């Protein structure tokens, strides 16, 4: 809970009933997606070059200025949102999302202080500045069982919870839950490889718990209905979804909706494909259902959440947009950079891999500009690796290069929302582990939430260009993005600017702030791996201090390192960093 609270609305007031931690990570909107992890592999652990001594001069001094007059893009306040894996409904983790205590990081008898974790506080930290929580449909049918009985039972369950109280679970229960989840993980892997999936039953009580978690974390829930139930004529069978909609409306749950997940894979899942035109008709049918229910007559509807936009997938999207382009409030798709079964740490340092997202954005925008110019685009399901990721790799410091570049690139290209897969799941693409310990991408996301505002600024650099070698493409290994500093961060006055920088070079780089940024005081937030594992590390340090939960419900203070006015920024090799340039009084950043 503390983890999410720190991440979300770090400056927005939270209702007194909110749990004190989870809200910061999450923002209005909940996304939940099903992924499956594969056996972990060691990956590439070759030693990487270390930073040169401070006395050695850098080769190039880079001059950096920012256009402070007007933003080039304005993204959603809920730009960084989260997704949950639907498997939590039947593997037991749903009952622990509201748990206050998880397994302590060290023994109670240890001389070192213990640091128990709470999921809801983690989520709340990310949600404190706004966001969404998405729940995608499982591979097989989802339905409400024993609808009338569940209404009664769920009322009793919520009466016991009474708002946002955090449940207490003994340590032995968490240990048993991890064993249960490990067994379920093997079942899911078997289903994935055999392409045969068991039914997943969503009861009213499960929906109550899910909504309570999102609501108490400051997040808006986005629920993806099952689209795999088809009539003989291949149209969507909505009878099951209607019962769920009626129940949610009876509880006055504020939910946005989707239909299905990766429709380009339906042939693999149910033995029949659904073309773009039919998918569009299905969405029109869902919109009609929503309009019949007063609570959801104006609810947001998102889709079609296609996979990687290859030629056949683009054709599906075009057919969908022709029929239902005006029906959805935003068009969604997914992106996973690399196959988690074969990834190496050096893959995460390749600029060619980072740039694959840019081509996908171009393809999606081209279709939308043809059929619905100005329609918002969401990247709704993104992770470093597919197939559940790889231990000590997709959950390590190295994966942060892809994640931070994803955030910067999407914002600069005008993508309105990005939904991160996943907050907690079976694989290794998540933000917290099964002890609810924050992983490197969590801390990266938390800093982003606290420091980055929705207004994107243009940057101007000099000194980056080098003479290209014949036959070799020069790709940018120093990535710089600029935004107005978050209005919710009361440590900085309006008009301040935040830079975030990725240095993929194996040598340090020097940046001199110029123009409107010259001679301003700068606050540095430098993230580096902590411990002997280097880029494989699952722990990080901020300005030289390791980051960890202080106690059961308290995030550490994210202290900046002040730099004197006019000082050159020295960016260590293979690092990520944020720099708040104070008191710029940027015209673009003075007003919301």
TrEMBL record:
It comes from the Eukaryota. Coiled coil: none annotated. Residues 105-138 are annotated as: Disordered. InterPro entries: GH (IPR017853), Glyco_hydro_79 (IPR005199). SUPFAM superfamilies: (Trans)glycosidases. One of its GO terms (cellular component) is extracellular space. One of its GO terms (molecular function) is hydrolase activity, acting on glycosyl bonds. GO terms for biological process: extracellular matrix organization. It holds the Pfam family Glyco_hydro_79n. Residues 107-134 have a biased composition (Low complexity). Belongs to the glycosyl hydrolase 79 family. This is HPSE2 protein. It comes from Ciccaba nigrolineata.
């Amino acid at each position: 809970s503390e983890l999410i609270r720190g991440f979300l609305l770090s400056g927005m007031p939270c209702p007194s009933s909110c749990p004190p931690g989870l809200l910061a990570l999450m923002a209005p909107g909940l996304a939940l997606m099903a992924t499956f992890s594969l056996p972990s592999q060691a990956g590439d652990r070759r030693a990487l070059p270390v930073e040169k001594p401070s006395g050695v001069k850098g080769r190039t001094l880079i001059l950096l200025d920012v256009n402070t007059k007007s933003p080039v893009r304005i993204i959603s306040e809920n730009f960084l949102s989260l997704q949950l894996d639907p498997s939590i409904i039947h593997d037991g983790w749903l009952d622990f999302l509201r748990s206050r205590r998880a397994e302590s990081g060290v023994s109670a008898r240890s001389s070192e202080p213990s640091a128990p974790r709470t999921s809801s506080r983690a989520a709340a930290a990310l949600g404190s500045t706004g966001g969404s929580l998405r729940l995608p449909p499982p591979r097989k049918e989802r339905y409400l069982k024993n609808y009338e009985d569940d209404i009664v039972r769920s009322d009793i369950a919520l009466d016991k919870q009474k708002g946002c109280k955090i449940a207490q679970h003994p340590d032995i229960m968490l240990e048993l839950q991890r064993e249960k989840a490990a067994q379920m993980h093997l079942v899911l892997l078997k289903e994935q490889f055999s392409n045969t999936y068991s039914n997943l039953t969503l009861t009213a009580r499960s929906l109550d718990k899910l909504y309570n978690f999102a609501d108490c974390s400051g997040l808006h829930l986005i629920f993806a209905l099952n689209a795999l139930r088809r009539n003989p004529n291949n149209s969507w069978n909505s009878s099951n979804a209607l019962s769920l909609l009626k129940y949610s409306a009876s509880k006055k749950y504020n939910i946005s909706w989707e239909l299905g997940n990766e429709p380009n894979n339906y042939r693999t899942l149910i033995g029949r494909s659904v073309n773009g035109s039919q998918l569009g008709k299905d969405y029109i049918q869902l919109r009609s259902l929503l309009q019949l229910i007063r609570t959801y007559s104006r609810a947001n509807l998102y889709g079609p959440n296609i996979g990687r936009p290859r030629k056949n997938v683009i054709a599906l999207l075009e057919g969908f947009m022709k029929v239902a382009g005006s029906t959805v409030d935003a068009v969604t798709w997914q992106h996973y950079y690399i196959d988690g079964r074969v990834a190496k740490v050096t893959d995460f340092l390749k600029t060619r891999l980072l740039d694959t997202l840019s081509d996908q954005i171009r393809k999606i925008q081209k279709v939308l500009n043809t059929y619905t110019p100005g329609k918002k685009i969401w990247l709704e399901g993104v992770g470093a690796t597919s197939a559940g990721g790889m231990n000590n790799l997709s959950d390590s410091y190295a994966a942060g290069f892809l994640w931070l570049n994803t955030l910067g690139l999407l914002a600069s290209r005008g993508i309105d929302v990005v939904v991160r897969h996943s907050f907690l799941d079976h694989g290794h693409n998540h933000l917290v582990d099964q002890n609810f310990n924050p992983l490197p991408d969590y801390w990266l996301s938390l800093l982003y939430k606290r420091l980055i505002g929705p207004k994107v600024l243009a940057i101007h650099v000099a000194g980056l260009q080098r003479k290209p070698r014949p036959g070799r493409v020069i790709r940018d290994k120093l990535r710089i993005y600029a935004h107005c500093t978050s209005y919710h961060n009361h440590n900085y006055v309006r008009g301040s600017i935040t830079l975030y920088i990725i240095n993929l070079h194996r040598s340090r780089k020097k940046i001199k702030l110029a123009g409107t940024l010259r001679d301003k005081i700068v606050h540095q937030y430098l993230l580096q791996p902590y411990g002997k594992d280097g880029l494989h590390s699952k722990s990080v340090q901020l300005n030289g201090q390791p980051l960890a939960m202080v106690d059961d419900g308290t995030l550490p203070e994210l202290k900046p390192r002040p730099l004197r006015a006019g000082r050159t920024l020295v960016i260590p090799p293979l690092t990520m960093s944020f720099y708040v340039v104070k008191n710029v009084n940027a015209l673009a950043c003075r007003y919301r």
